[in-house]
Amino acid sequence: MEVCYQLPVLPLDRPVPKHVLSRRGAISFSSSSSLFGAPDPRQLAQRRGAISYDSSDQTALYIRMLDVRVRSQVGFEPERRGSHPYLGVDFRTLHSRAESAGSIPVRRIRRLFSFQRHLLSSRFLRGVPHLNPLHILDEDYCGQAKCMLEKVGSWNFDIFLFDRLTNGNSLVNLTLYLLSHYGLIELFQLDMVKVHRFLVLVQEDYHNHNPYHNAVHAADVTQAMHCYLKEPKLAKSLTSCDILLGLLAAATHDLDHPGVNQPFLIKTNHYLATLYRNTSVLENHHWKSAVGLLRETELFSHLPAEDSLNMERQLGSLILATDISRQNEYLSKFRTHLDQEDLCLGNPSHRHFILQMALKCADICNPCRPWELSKQWSEKVTEEFFHQGDIEKKHKLEVSPLCDSETNSIADVQIGFMTYVVEPLFAEWARFSDTRLSQTMLGHLCLNKASWNALQPEASGSSEEPESELEPSSRALPQGRPHS
User: What is the pTM of this model?
Assistant: First the structure.
């Protein structure tokens, strides 16, 4: 594959020259192929990313992850520093499974259909008539998906079914629908083609080989965020800007997640850990990835520069709040406000804090879903944990807590997570918003915990060691945020 970069590629693990840091703006590392109208949908994979930075804060430097295959083709290989630099892991294929030769054409056909849908949508938005008969299939898919979107505010919304009905485009379709539902596109005078392109790029930058941290998880969090935004206290207080930021933060909160947690990146000397000084490494990366796409698509280019930068900062504040290592900090602040009854949603800072708490709830709400949905998420996140543990064993590294399949079970992990993380957070959220939805979530949480208790192997004896690792101060927690 030939990749044409606009500027020379900087090696990912070398210091960035001072003359680069002194400039404001971004250096694009995108390929020359356009998103819409490309002759071959496989060219979508050529687009990779950018370096964006703020010269006032060198730690805010952002380097998008590049595919190892692309880096090697342009002649750059990571320098070997430390004992385990990167471990030679290509995060974009970390959780991929070997596929049979017969399944490759099927995947290519699905990819073609997906590309055709984006292409036809863009042509429609530009007023260009289409002559492709595939629109019949597209309209059939859209018809089924539209039936589901009519109930997008239901807590029983099945995101897995919706993803199948949209041919793997749940994040694009759901977020676009919600932006239209709230009237945000008209209110902020957003260019529909730019909006669609931004959402497609966001979805493309999730690693869908990850069992858990993928675009479906992002769509699920976005749907949960919509449910919270409809709650009476928020619905009558939040501004349109708050709603826009909440939806964008939900859609991008795990952007470009590698499928491993922060301790793994630190002990393998990954460049992201160095870049962000071992602090909220992945959350900072998700935020900067989102900012990179906002600037690449120029989604807010029509707004005053000060307003656009302010939205980027607030987006970062929301995404950084999902760092589970800061769980006690946010929970204590939330509890103090509720005890003192001093939350005033007319205050912009208080509204922003409630948005942070809503996003935190949306991010780890899986145990509060109906059992059929919750169980699927639990199995997926544990699979991702155990796969990381297998890599650590292979390279003679200390196995991270909850990542050893020989000493942990799905039931152990989930019960501990529900007890020490989910219950305290959602109990306080129910104090803040004592509604039918809050009681429904707590009811599902109680039933799901009982179900996992019933599934625990009797031989395990329900040892207390796994639970002690799951106390709120723990650095590695399951279900939704295994990268803290």
Answer: 0.76
